[in-house]
Specification:
The structure holds 2 protein chains of 2 kinds. Chain A is mostly helical. Chain A is built from 5 helices and no strands. In chain A, helix 1 crosses helix 3. Chain B has a single domain, classed as 4'-phosphopantetheinyl transferase domain (Ribosomal Protein L22, Chain A, Alpha-Beta Complex), CATH 3.90.470. In chain B, a hairpin with a 4-residue loop joins strand 2 and strand 3. Chain B is globular, with a radius of gyration of 16 Å. Chain B starts with a strand and ends with a strand. The chains are: A mainly alpha, B alpha+beta. Chains A and B meet through helix 3 of A and helix 2 of B.
């Protein structure tokens, strides 16, 4: 999966939980889920679960720990998709 | 040190479906999930446990300045209906929760010695500041004191240490 598609899919996943539409409109790899998108921390687990379903992967606790911004979410997905 | 977390229970009921498959497993240990299963008010227990983890995370973040989403590293054990301890590695933080209407507010401290020093609410002369890591402080006339601030839905709570 190319970066553009991956970024677009992440954007789609976080959209329902985002409380800052302006930050969503300009979403990029540096966008922070909590500080920029104002996603409630109790909804961050929904983002993780939605990413798992969307990409058909399992996100372990060590990977979930890093999923606080778009860049690390993309890295987690890329690593899981690349794993045999 | 100090950390707090407030939850608007009415908003949480709309915003979060903790009954969704996989949700509890990512946030709560088997022992914590058992507390939820056995609770008379399961929603209240979910948010009490979650707020305790959040409050303890704020103490850890203040110390380490490292951000992480690792709720299972925080293990909550109750010592009464609305109080208990959060275990994180070799540290243990006491916490107390107050529920008033649909406002659930949890405060955790680094050790029980701090309880008499906890100030609830911001006084008129006090100003809330945040440093470059987003760690809050309260500045009053004399000096700067550690604080914690949380808002959710229609509720906002600020606590600080009078030191």
């Amino acid at each position: 999966m190319d970066k553009v598609t991956l970024l677009a899919t992440i954007k789609e996943v976080v959209a329902p939980y985002t409380k800052n539409p302006e930050a969503l409109a300009t979403l990029n790899e540096d966008t922070d889920f909590i500080r920029d998108l104002k996603i409630n921390s109790a909804n961050l687990v929904d983002v993780v679960l939605d990413v798992e379903e969307k990409f058909n992967i399992v996100i372990d606790n060590d990977s979930m720990e890093k999923m606080i911004n778009v860049r690390s979410a993309m890295e987690v997905v890329e690593n899981k998709l690349a794993a045999p | 040190m100090i950390g707090n977390d407030v939850i608007d229970l009415e908003l949480a009921a709309v915003e979060s479906n903790w009954r969704r498959r996989g949700y509890l497993d990512k946030l709560f240990s088997p022992a914590e999930q058992q507390l939820i299963t056995q609770a008379a008010d399961q929603d209240r227990m979910v948010w009490l446990l979650w707020s305790a983890k959040e409050a303890a995370y704020k103490i850890i973040h203040r110390d380490t300045r490292q951000r992480a989403y690792a709720p299972l590293q925080y293990e909550v054990r109750l010592s009464g209906a609305d109080a208990g301890f959060i275990h994180y590695n070799d540290r243990v933080f006491p916490f107390r929760t107050v529920v008033s209407g649909s406002c659930l507010h949890t405060v955790a401290v680094a050790s029980a010695n701090w309880w008499p020093q906890v100030a609830y609410r911001l006084q008129p002369a006090e100003v809330l500041l945040k440093d470059e890591d987003g760690v809050p402080f309260i500045q009053d006339t004399g000096h700067v004191r550690p604080a914690s601030v949380s808002h959710h839905g229609v509720y906002r709570e600020t606590v600080s240490l009078q030191i």
